[in-house]
Amino acid sequence: MATRIRPSNKRCAVIGGSGFLGRHLVERLVDRGYAVAVFDIRQTYELPGVNFYQGDLCDKHALLTALKDVSIVFHCASPAPASDDRALFQRVNIDGTRTVIQACHEAGVQKLVLTSSASVVFEGSDIKNAKEDLPYAKRPIDYYTETKIQQEKLVLEACSKEMDFFTIAIRPHGIFGPRDPQLVPILVDAARRGKMKFIIGDGSNLVDFTYVENVVHGHILAAERLKADSPLCAQAYHITNDEPVRFWDFMSQILVGLGYSAPRYHLPYMLVYGIALLLWLIAFIMRPLVQIKPTFTPMRVALAGTHHYYSCARAKQDMGYQPVVPLKEAIARTVESYPHLRKGA
Ligand SMILES: NC(=O)C1=CN([C@@H]2O[C@H](COP(=O)(O)OP(=O)(O)OC[C@H]3O[C@@H](n4cnc5c(N)ncnc54)[C@H](OP(=O)(O)O)[C@@H]3O)[C@@H](O)[C@H]2O)C=CC1
Ligand SMILES: CC(C)CCC[C@@H](C)[C@H]1CC[C@H]2C3=C(CC[C@]12C)[C@@]1(C)CCC(=O)C[C@@H]1CC3
């Protein structure tokens, strides 16, 4: 029987490697001596030791070029949650992930690490210190969440000892840090438009926000510990800062750090949620005529007004995970990295 020659285990590919998390992951992998192929729909930077392949992950032939001689694939590409485009989420997160799995098989890849999301269990009500065995959301709050659930299932079901192909899903929550295009920019935009005066609910709700370097650390541990017969095979793992914080304290620290005022006045959660739902409906109906992008979407209001924090005990036990950057330091580094978003800049 002909033996298949295995690619070097220091060769990996990052699908979505031009994005926020993907680029931080690529930089860390290069530091650790990996040869990295980035596959993304756009190229945003150059880095020694990294080869870029521009293409759509739904295109298997384009993917196969990038996966040549690769043993580990990190899949961290997704349309932005704010796009709220059902067909796009279905095409990229579900059909595209099937294509990624198929391409991994054809290229002889051994390990696939998916960036999933802790929000796969979030339905808009409180989640306190949840473990990974909490069932997926039965009524996902948006298309992003709906397709992240399907995507995670596809990847975990593809794990196969017979095929020598091992898969794992990392579930981060509320990733933030330098170059994040979402959390800090959306927050500052809302503050600049005078929309950050109010606290939704009583402000006591605890949430996980996870510094990007901790998320990267979780991904690399996962890739390096994943092998046949390891408990990591076909499992999902929460990766957080392990320091739940009051949502509104976190937002206030970022805002005040950048020179804006902290929100002060309270609004009832159900009232704001109802208005957000109504605005979403109006935007949906008007979509063929005009694109309206409300700041306060039902998902954002739900995230801002409920508890949602997750236990990462499983990651600690199975892969020795511990956050490498504590929250206080992470917030300071993040604030420092956005001089252009400071008040008056
Ligand atoms: N940010 C967060 O708080 C959290 C994120 N996640 C997950 O982490 C992952 C990374 O997120 P993040 O870094 O924030 O997102 P980004 O949007 O910054 O990065 C995703 C990258 O994937 C690219 N991409 C999108 N569609 C395709 C496609 N069809 N083919 C190839 N590349 C594509 C994007 O390009 P373009 O920008 O042009 O679309 C972008 O460069 C995602 O899977 C997300 O679901 C999970 C939990 C929390
Ligand atoms: C306008 C304000 C009420 C809120 C501003 C901050 C928000 C933009 C962010 C607060 C929590 C974030 C979050 C995500 C995106 C950005 C926030 C809503 C995710 C939805 C990103 C994708 C995920 O997988 C889950 C994240 C949960 C937290």
TrEMBL record:
Gene3D superfamilies: NAD(P)-binding Rossmann-like Domain. Keywords: Acetylation, Cholesterol biosynthesis, Cholesterol metabolism, Endoplasmic reticulum, Lipid biosynthesis, Lipid droplet, Lipid metabolism, Membrane, NAD, Oxidoreductase, Steroid biosynthesis, Steroid metabolism, Sterol biosynthesis, Sterol metabolism, Transmembrane, Transmembrane helix. One of its GO terms (molecular function) is 3-beta-hydroxysteroid dehydrogenase [NAD(P)+]/C4-decarboxylase activity. It holds the Pfam family 3Beta_HSD. The chain crosses the membrane at residues 270-290. Residues 13-267 form the 3-beta hydroxysteroid dehydrogenase/isomerase domain. Its EC number is 1.1.1.170. Its main location: endoplasmic reticulum. It is an enzyme of class 1 (oxidoreductase). GO terms for cellular component: endoplasmic reticulum membrane; lipid droplet. SUPFAM superfamilies: NAD(P)-binding Rossmann-fold domains. It is found in: Endoplasmic reticulum membrane; Lipid droplet. GO terms for biological process: cholesterol biosynthetic process. It is a single-pass membrane protein. Belongs to the 3-beta-HSD family. Homodimer. This is Sterol-4-alpha-carboxylate 3-dehydrogenase, decarboxylating. It comes from Triplophysa rosa (Cave loach).
